[in-house]
Structures are given as structure tokens and as C-alpha cells.
Amino acid sequence: MKIALSGYYGFDNAGDEALLTAITRSIHKYRPDAEFVVFSGHPDHTKSAHQIRAIYYMNPIKVLREISRCDLLISGGGSIFQDITSRRSLAYYICIVALAKLFKKKVIFYAQGVGPINHAFSKMLMRLIANRVDIITLRDEESRRLLNSIGVTKPPQLITADPVFALQTSEKDHQLASQIVSSLNNCSHGIIGVSVRDWAKLDGYQEKLAKVLDALSAQGYGILFIPFAWPQDIKASQSVIKHMKSTPLLVDQKLNSHQLLALMSKTKIMIGMRLHALIFAASQETVFAGLSYDPKVDAFLNLYNMKPLPINDVDAMLKQIQDLLTSGTLRQTIINKSKLMSEKALENAILALKLLNDDLSTHI
């Protein structure tokens, strides 16, 4: 069984690399003999990090050859079908799907978070090609509503969960995480994780967030900045740190998905801009607070009946975080919801394999 994977892989984004790990491991849970090829921005990096075969995603001859040879194309997960950052990227990913259908291959949109899709041409492409895929699994209801609104209605659509919820950590991962947090001073009340990114429309939030973190530090919390995209988030973290009076710790080493998950488990709350910072925290049953820069962050918060932090109001932001820190009800909600999410994350793999008429009864 040969499976091709198309997504934002090979670019040192922890969230997308975690998705690749989660998808391949979930498939291997049921079909250990499955062979993968990844369309990657940096094939050598992907081969080294994931121990699976990879080709350069912009090499048309190799991509065509792999699509012609595969049994199934997995598109996703993540948020590759959106045109807010680039219309060209959406066109690329949907064209990969079109090629697979041209070769009469089975295709699944695997736990996608779709949107925003604002341009008429992007909507037309999605409507034309997405209606020809075999099944669509989505990580939130907002994505389904968007697909339906632009006319994608033919394939079965199911709400599942982000594949990362299926990942598990090891003792070695936790040992490294403990070693990292041991460098923190003044954390008698626990550790607050922070994940930020550059985003022009939110420029100016850095000083306000710094004031909130200083106030929490004064209360006895250790502040730990955790980059998710390497090395871009180092600079974004430093842009907040330079406004702080207290001394936080910035993780200055590139961690893999499992190490990041273990680090999340050491925090009392995760304050995150990047969606997968919140997902990682939730999967480790850690309380989280979202700084929203994109509708996908709001969509995930909605799953837990939460609202994004009021980023322009220092006092309100601090109060919301303090309320989250003391809410036992919220923690129990996260625990219950995350257990359900773990089960739903594996549904993606089962549905993908069933497209190949695979008898999973001997594997489950």
C-alpha cells in the first residue's frame, strides 16, 4: 500500500511537522506495512526527522510519478486550503488533488481546517476540485460551513479532530522537558508557556502582553517562551521579551513534536498565538488561552466554549488568564474533551484506509 502525503511539510513549522508524524503513525497503527512518500519543501530534512521517503514538492516530474504510483493521496491536515497568506499556495495544493483524481486515485482531505477563502478564483478551484475527492474530514464545524457556502457539498464530510491528539510522549521526552524548565527561576506557582508569532495586523500587542506576563511573574509564575516555527518565532518571542521587566526563559533549541508535547505538560497554562500551541496544550490536558490572529484559532477555542484574549486591554487580558488559572471546571472540560479528541483523531486514519477497501478487522 503506497500513500502520498501533500501538506506544508519540511518547513520547520512544529505544528505541521507534528501533523505529519501523527498522520503517518496513525496509519501505521492499523497498517504497519503502509509505505509513504511526502511532498516536502526540504526532502532531506523530512527524511531525517521522520524516517520516511520524501521528494521536493515543486519537482513536477517526481510529483507526477509518485501520484501515478500511489494508492491514496492524503491532503493535509492543517490549514493548507486558505488564501489569506497566499493564493498561490491554495492553487498548488488543490492542483495536487486534481492530478491525483486525473490518475483516478483515492483522495482524502485529512482533518483539514479550511479557510479563510476570500477570492473568487480560489472559491472556484475549491468548488471544482474538492467536489471530486472521496471523503473530507474536518477539525471544526466552521470549516464545514465554509465549504458548503462555496458549493463543496458532494463528498461525505465528517468532523473529527486534529491528528496531533493521537500523539503520545515518552519518558525520554519528559526528561528533556524537565531539564529545560529546571532553568526557570521564580516559578513557585507554576510555569506559564507562551507561543507567539509575527503578524503585521496585530503589531503592537507585544508591549501589552509583556505587561501581563510581568504581572504574572510578580505573582510567582515562571514565564517560558516556546517557539513553534524555527527560527521565526525566536525573533517574535524576543520582540515581547524586550518589553518585559522580569526575566523569562526562551527555549533556544529546536524541539521535535514529542518534545514540545512533553514541555506543554510541564506548564500550568499555555498562552498561544499559533493554533498548534493550543492544540498541543489541550492534548496534554493543560489549560490554554488564545491570542487570535486567524479564524482557525477562534474555531478551536469555540470547541471548548472559550473566547480569545482581549489583546488590546491589559487589565482584561490579565483577569481572563487569572480566571483560567483558577478554574477547576475548565481543566476538567479540557480533560474530557481531549480524551474524545484522541479517539476522533484516529478516526481519520480508519476512514482513509477504508477508501482502499481495507479490512481493518485484523488490525483494530
Walk me through the structure.
The chain is 47% helix and 16% strand. The protein is α/β, with parallel strands linked by helices. It has a seven-stranded parallel beta sheet with strand order 3-2-1-4-5-6-7, with helices on both faces. Strands 10-9-8-11-12 form a five-stranded parallel beta sheet, sandwiched between helices. The longest helix has 27 residues, at 328-354. The chain starts with a strand and ends in a 10-residue tail after the last helix.
Blueprint of the fold:
Layout: E1 2-9, H1 14-30, E2 35-40, H2 43-50, E3 53-56, H3 60-69, E4 72-78, H4 87-102, E5 106-112, H5 120-130, E6 135-138, H6 141-149, E7 157-159, H7 171-181, E8 190-195, H8 205-218, E9 221-225, H9 232-241, E10 249-250, H10 257-265, E11 269-272, H11 275-283, E12 287-290, H12 295-303, H13 314-325, H14 328-354
Parallel strand pairs: 1-2, 1-4, 2-3, 4-5, 5-6, 6-7, 8-9, 8-11, 9-10, 11-12
Helix pairs in contact: 1-14, 4-5, 7-10, 8-13, 10-11
Summarize this structure as a short list of keywords or feature phrases.
14 helices, 16% strand, five-stranded parallel β-sheet, alpha/beta, single chain, seven-stranded parallel β-sheet, 364 residues
Give the overall average pLDDT.
Answer: 92
| Main beta-sheet annotation | 7 strands, parallel
Helix content: 40-55%
The CA-CA distance between the termini, in Å, is 18 Å
Estimate the global geometry from the Cα principal axes.
Answer: globular
